[in-house]
């Protein structure tokens, strides 16, 4: 099996992680169009970090992200930026929807925690199929 490696002037790497972000209070926030909005937002954020989104999908209360990133980037900072920037963009563009769920006062979206796992134990194709098969909400 051929592994696809990424290259920078100082490194050749394949650092791929599976990230799960969960909505605050596990509220059912996302509909199909919100997941598409997040897909674009996460891709733009990742690009600024010189990272690459392999796959994104989710359900009404959480999002799965398969991401490859360069070794000189701090993963916890990248995830913090994904969370904070996507929250800001969601509130800036979809505030009426989020106010119905979280109220007027707080611009919250994600829990303080996250899940991350390296993709060494499972093939990327298996993880990609798992993320692709998430039961996206249809309403």
Describe this structure in words.
This protein is α+β, with helices and mostly antiparallel strands and 139 residues long. The protein has one domain (15-132): Alpha-Beta Plaits. The chain has three helices and six strands. The protein has helices at 32-48, 75-102, 124-132; strands at residues 6-8, 11-13, 16-22, 52-59, 62-68, 115-118. The strands form two sheets. It has a four-stranded antiparallel beta sheet with strand order 4-5-3-6, sandwiched between helices. It has a two-stranded antiparallel ribbon with strand order 1-2. A hairpin with a 2-residue loop joins β4 (52-59) and β5 (62-68). The termini are far apart. The mean pLDDT is 92. Residues 12-134 form the Transposase IS200-like domain. One of its GO terms (biological process) is DNA transposition. This is IS200/IS605 family transposase.
How do the helices and strands follow one another from N- to C-terminus? EEEHEEHEH
CATH architecture: 2-Layer Sandwich
The CATH homologous superfamily: Transposase IS200-like
Main beta-sheet strand count, sense and barrel state: 4 strands, antiparallel
Care to give the gist of this entry?
This protein is an alpha+beta fold and 139 residues long. It has helices at 32-48, 75-102, 124-132, and strands spanning 6-8, 11-13, 16-22, 52-59, 62-68, 115-118. β4 and β5 (62-68) form a beta hairpin.
Features:
139 residues, alpha+beta, Alpha-Beta Plaits, four-stranded antiparallel beta sheet, two-stranded antiparallel ribbon
């Amino acid at each position: 099996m051929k592994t696809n490696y990424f290259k920078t002037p100082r490194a050749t790497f394949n650092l791929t992680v599976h990230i799960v972000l969960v909505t605050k209070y596990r509220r059912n926030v996302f509909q199909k169009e919100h997941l598409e909005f997040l897909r674009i937002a996460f891709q733009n954020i990742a690009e600024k970090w010189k990272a690459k989104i392999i796959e994104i999908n989710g359900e009404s209360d959480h999002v799965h992200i398969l991401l490859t990133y360069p070794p000189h980037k701090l993963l916890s900072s990248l995830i913090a930026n994904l969370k904070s920037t996507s929250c800001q963009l969601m509130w800036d563009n979809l505030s009426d929807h989020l106010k119905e769920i979280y109220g007027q006062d707080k611009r919250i979206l994600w829990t303080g925690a996250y899940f991350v796992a390296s993709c060494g134990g499972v093939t990327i194709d298996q993880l990609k199929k798992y993320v692709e098969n998430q039961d996206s909400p249809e309403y």
